[in-house]
């Protein structure tokens, strides 16, 4: 941190406004800890376990698919992160530069729903794990407790969330390492551990997709946590710090989920508690605190996105800390309701939820990255982002909106979910490669269409900040 940073307990006053140069602070390494620390939690463990419980892969195939998926998805996530120091605004505000002021509302509204879904999923897991280890808590009380910790961090904002995840990088990282050592050396693995489950292509591609989506799901908010970095942080430093922080922070707990999933039948959290024996109380406590850290990030960015919707409709509104607190409490109430009433079918709901997310996030990430890196070359008129008429970007960029809708449509034949399986996915034995198709098809189409449209930022265009 440098002299511009007044300390972690300071209430953040900004919300979606551009961050001025004299308010910039932090170093690229802060991006490593925020993504490493926030990923080491129970939801990541449960997601890794899907490789062997839902997709029925053996250990080696599960790990290859999870590592590959994270490393591929992480590229897109980190490319978004590198935009933060350059533009100094939240990701969903910057989306107006591709979709126009009203056109962006479609994507921003979907992203708010995404944050609510992840927040509710984390609340359920936190509540269930606290109840399973600490009998004095009911599941509902655990859900409320994890949620309240998240709200406090959201109200204080950016600095406290960064400090929280920095602490969790060390604490959760140490507990994760202890889990591996204990399960392998003390508890022991079954003799047929490596022979359990059989390789199947549909399961491999399904696991690859889930892991890639884990990273892609951060794309709509990753630059929210790099927007305070000084502009001279550099795109490369922001990219690699975010990339390795998020990939390593995801792959390691997912590997723990694979090990537990292969060793136990049924409940993964119960299996983790059983296999960690006398250290289970510590494991559950730390990983539950980790859930609260990640949920603070989800709620914070959901709040910024909701404020973005409001400011689009009422351009004169300049939301501050009080607006962030009130918006956060409203979103928290919605997620809390979802968690309390949707906890019984949690795993089925969660799996369907993240697959549906994939289909709507992929075309957005393709459009955003192609526009930023290949069309606008990082140079945007930030002042236009805050005008009702979208300034030089207009109300709607029909090229982007059309490509976005097309991006969802081209994935339909390749989709494989409980709700719907496309004809090509059926022919491939239920393998879901829709996200690959979406990226490969939409990226060149949007690039070519945008080159024809050829917009140029006005004088004073910022990739710098006023």
From TrEMBL:
Annotated membrane topology: Multi-pass membrane protein
Subcellular localization, as worded in the UniProt entry: Membrane
Keyword set includes Ligase: no
Spans traversing the lipid bilayer: 32-52, 59-79, 99-121, 142-161, 167-189, 201-221, 241-264, 271-291, 321-341, 353-374, 395-416, 428-449
Major site of localization recorded for this protein: membrane
InterPro entries: Pur-cyt_permease, Pur-cyt_permease_Fcy2/21/22
GO cellular component entries: plasma membrane
Pfam families per the UniProt record, alphabetical: Transp_cyt_pur
GO molecular function terms listed in the Swiss-Prot or TrEMBL record: transmembrane transporter activity
The UniProt record lists the keyword Transport: yes
Domain of life of the source: Bacteria
Keyword terms: Membrane, Transmembrane, Transmembrane helix, Transport
Family as reported in the entry's similarity comment: Belongs to the purine-cytosine permease (2.A.39) family.
Protein name, entry field: Nucleobase:cation symporter-1, NCS1 family
